Structures are given as C-alpha cells and as structure tokens.
Amino acid sequence: LVAGDIESAVNHYLQLFVSDKTQSSAESLSFIVFFESATYLMTILDDYELFTLEKPFQVRQLISMAYFCNLFIFRSVWEKTVDIDDVLRNCTFNVVLGFLLLIYSRDCRRPFVPKDFWLMKDLKSSVFLNEVNRGNKKALFIIQRIPHVIPHRERIKLFRKYVASEKASLAAARLFEDQMSVIITIHRARIVEDGFRQLSQLPGRILKGIVRVKFINEQGLDEPGIDQDGVFKEFLEEVIKNIFDPALNLFKLTSEGHLYPSPTSYIHENYLLLFEFIGKMLGKAVYEGICVDILLASFFINHLIGRTASKYHSSIDELSSLDADLYKQLTFIKHYEGDMNDLGLTFACDEDILGEVVTHELRPGGRTIPVTKENKISYVHLMAHYRMFVQIKDQIAAFMRGFHAIISPEWLRMFSADEFQRLLSGDTCDIDLHDLRKHTQYFGGFHNNHRVIVWLWEILANDFSVEERRLFLKFVTSCSKPPLLGFEYLEPPFSIRCVEVNDDEDEGDTLGSVIRGFLAIRKEDPVSRLPTTSTCFNLLKLPNYHRKSTLRDKLRYAIHCGTGFELS
Q: Are both 249 and 296 inside the same structural domain?
C-alpha cells in the first residue's frame, strides 16, 4: 500500500473505532482478531523466517502495517478521537498498540524501515513539549508509551529538563532542612571498597545532591581538590570502570562485547548489595550527564527501561547477542523436522556450578516432560527466557533498585535500548571539532588564536583519523564519544591549560604564566614533555611546543599510550 491508501485506511478505522463503541461488529471483530494473531506470530517468528523467508508477511507488508499502526495509535490519542481514559480500556486500541510496540522493538534490534519512519513529521515538537510540561494526559501517554514519534534530540532535552527541575527542588529542600553536602574519604587503593562502604546505604534523595570526595593517595597523604566537583567525576568513573571489569566477575561480556550481570556473581559476599550500589553509581552518572565508556547488553538495558514488561516480549529475539551457540541450537530445534524423541530433550537444563552439575526445571515437573513437535516452540522460548532472565533475575532486580533510586522509571520509558546506550555513553558519530572548539575554555595564557592552539585544531582536523579523534576525547574526558546534545552540555567544560616545562604541579593562572603564555616566552623547547590530562576536570595540559610537528607527535603518542591522570 502507498502512504495515501494507508492514511485512508486509518481514517476509516478511526471512524469505526468511534462509532462501534461495543466493538461487536463483524468488521471490528475481524480487525481485532487479525492484529491479535499477527502479534502472536511476531513473538514466535525468528529473523530467518521474518526477513529471509518473509513468511507469513513480506517485509514490505510489515512496513505498511507498522505505518498504519503508528498513525492509528498516534491519531487516536493526539486528535482526541476518544477520551484518553476510554482509549486505555478499549480492546481495539490495545491490540493495535501491542502490535506496534512489538514491531517497533524488532526494528530497534534489526532495522528494516527507512530513517525517520516512526516520527510524526507534522507534529511541532515545541507545541507537544509544552503540552507535556502542562501535564496534558494525551501528551504524557505519547511520551511514555510511543515516544518514538518524537525526535530523539527533543526527548534528550526533555530528560535533561526533568533532571534540572528535580535538582532545583531537592536543592531548595536541602536548604530549608539545612542539610550539608555529603563528604567521603576514598583511598586510591580501595576506591570500590571505600565507595561502597560510605555510599551504598545512602538513599537516592541524598545521592542526587552534591557528593564531595577527598582522595588519600598511595602514600597515605591527602590529595588536593576536595572542593572541586570534578574530583567526584573521577571517583565515579573509577568505580564504574572497576566494577564493570569482567575480571571481577560481577559482569560478563556477550559475544558482541557488551556487559551483563554474571550468573556466577554470587561468589562475592554481599553481591546483591554490590549490584544495587553500582546501579546507583551508574544512575548518578546519567543524572549528572557524565558519559561513561561502557556498553551494556541490549536485553539488560530493556529491563532497566521497562521494555520487558509487555506480555508480548520475547527473549529469543536477543539471545544471539548473548549466547550465539545456544541461539543456533534452539533455532535448530525449532526448525527440526525429524522425530523429536531422537534429541532426548526435556523441559530442564543442566548447569555446571563450581564443578557441580545442577538441573533447573523450565516449568514445574519439567525434567519429566519430553520436548515434542507440539511443544518445542514453548521449550525454545522458556530456555531463552531462563538464559536471559531467570538465571540472573536477582542481580537484575538489585541493579534496577539502585538505578531507579536515582533515575525515575517514567523518564526512562522515553528511550529505546540503543537510545539509552547513547544517553549513557554519548553519540556514536564523529567528533564535531567546530562545536568542541566553540565550547573550549583556555587557561595559563592560551587563547583561541595562540599558535599552539591553532596547531592543535589543525592537527585534529587534518592529521588525526576518526579513531584518533575519539582517542583524543577519551584521553581528556575519559569517554570516547561526544555528549548527545553537543559539547555545550559537557560538564565540566572542555579546557586546555598551558603548563611550564618545570611545572611539577599546575598552580593555575598565575600572572607570570598568563604573561608568558601570551608572549610565548620559554627558556627551552619542551620536546621531552608529553601532554597530560586531568580527566576529572576534562582538562588537557599542553606544554608550549615550538614546532607543530612536535605537538602532533607528542599528542599522538600520548593518546595511544594513555599517559593518564594527573590531579592538580
């Protein structure tokens, strides 16, 4: 069908939707049965059946159905075809909504529709967001149930507005209650342990406020910087990096290199409290707009953002990203045409736990129930569900408790798994150097037209590859991806400071350093010194090199070798 035909069909069924209030006409019942059946089929069809065999629907038919459902649901709500409360109780509306959410989730995992297909292009974002801010029920329904009709950038802005509004309310309450900010003391050799001990029991309301960190170095001496917000950024990044390290066995890597809770994480004492703690820490990073360089498995993200609550959710869809071998085995079983008795399967699975084989039943009495041709579809889905959820349900629940203590679940419903990953880790596109330069601050005598600064931007634009530009950003900020809304939203702002050859400590903008920086007065060419960074402040420290080639070579060496953090 062409778009015009689909829109005519939408108009027809919207009229039927209003006129047939009991939904008892033959046409209404046929409509409901069709989408109920299509939804059920979509939950059991794998990618091979859907996109290669194209049975029972061709891909072009799926696209037409998606277009119809998206427009039907949006117009039902936004154009006030019926009252929003009546809509939610309407069977016709709910079966179409169920199919829409299911086909949208399939497209998120394996795109098959054109770019911007899901957006309502005639809807003005400013008008819609004003309605959201006013608490309009139809606008709130759309942003929470079908947010994909609104541009992603606008939803990110709305998320940041929600956070800013809550921060202001909590700050006012703390001022009224005369609450002080939280101050913690962290030994660098025990970052995770000290952080867990001092923060894990604090409620989300407290953690959403200012947390100040006092570091104790490896020699047992206090480090400067307790009153700088950037020190907490470094602490947060170090905690997240350490806990998500697969070597710790709290998290494991999928075949695609994405992280999910380890099924054997229970070997850690207080492992569920650890998961709740890291949930709070990751939530705090998102709350503060701090991008972290970790990739979470999409099935794990879907639990966080509430995308697994639907009765139509199917674990088999994402199993291949977690366990490719099991996915192949289950696909083989699903399409096996021989005698199922030959496979000798029951509704149970064995697991090796620390050298002991433990049998788990997929359903009550499962070890005595054989897998047959009639029930093999159920077996495939139960096995996938066990592997992706049941096996780690306690870890997921604990992590969600911590994360949702900081980030409201309602806010998270605005995003798909991929969109949440970008919210967490930044954009996947190349770095916009013009935007970065526009929002860079200079210290120590550097300025936008200083020769070293001019060289730096030329090197980044002309000499560095896309990958090297990402390494450069990671070198300075600890994250290789730019913020979703641009560098205007990077906190703290991206900064570059001129440092002296003989500086052991950066003392800031002294009068002498500023004058020397502007006049380019140096006793010697600092060819032996590498660029360094203070990632907690998003600060690049550059010697005043005398040659562009020296800057290029030293910077390239530094970003590849990671000369690392240097707290000032």
A: yes
Q: What's the CATH code of the domain at 351?
A: 3.30.2160.10
536 is catalytic: yes
Query: How many domains is the chain built from?
Result: 4
Catalytic option among 69, 291, 479, 536: 536
Report DSSP letters for 393-451, one per residue: HHHHHHHHHHHHHHS-HHHHTT--HHHHHHHHH---SPP-HHHHHHT-EEETT--TT-H
Q: Is the pLDDT of residue 270 over 90?
A: yes
Q: How far is CA 423 from CA 157, 186, 293, 396, in A?
A: 11, 28, 11, 20
Q: Which of 113, 142, 164 is the endpoint of a domain?
A: 113
What does the pLDDT look like over 492-515, one tens digit per residue? 899 999 997 554 444 445 555 555
Query: Is 23 contained in some domain?
Result: yes
| 3-class DSSP state of 33 | helix
Angle, nearest 10°, between helix axes 417-425 and 271-288? 80
Whether residues 361 and 414 share a domain: the answer is: no
Q: Is the dihedral of CA 95, 101, 106, 111 positive or negative?
A: positive
Helix, strand, or coil (residue 348): strand
End residue of a domain, out of 70, 96, 113? 113
Cis peptide before 147 (omega within 30 of 0): no
Of 206 and 520, the structure prediction assigns the larger pLDDT to 206
118-123 long-range contacts (CB < 8 A, ≥24 apart) are: 118/70, 118/148, 118/149, 119/148, 119/149, 119/150, 119/151, 120/74, 120/149, 120/150, 123/78, 123/149, 123/150
Task: Please check whether residue 128 lies inside any domain of the structure.
Answer: no
The enclosing domain of 260 has a CATH number of: 3.90.1750.10
In this structure, the number of other CB atoms found within 10 A of the CB of residue 419 comes to 19
> What domain range includes position 14?
3-113
Rounded Cα distance between 148 and 140, Å, is: 13
* 10-57: pLDDT as tens digits: 999 999 988 888 889 999 999 999 999 999 999 889 888 999 999 899
User: Which amino acid is present at 181?
Assistant: S
Tell me the per-residue pLDDT of 73-128, one tens digit each, with 9 for 90 and over. 999 999 866 678 877 788 999 999 999 999 999 999 999 999 999 999 999 999 99
* Within-domain flag for 89: yes
Residue 295 covered by a domain: yes
Same domain, 297 and 357: no
pLDDT at 500: 75
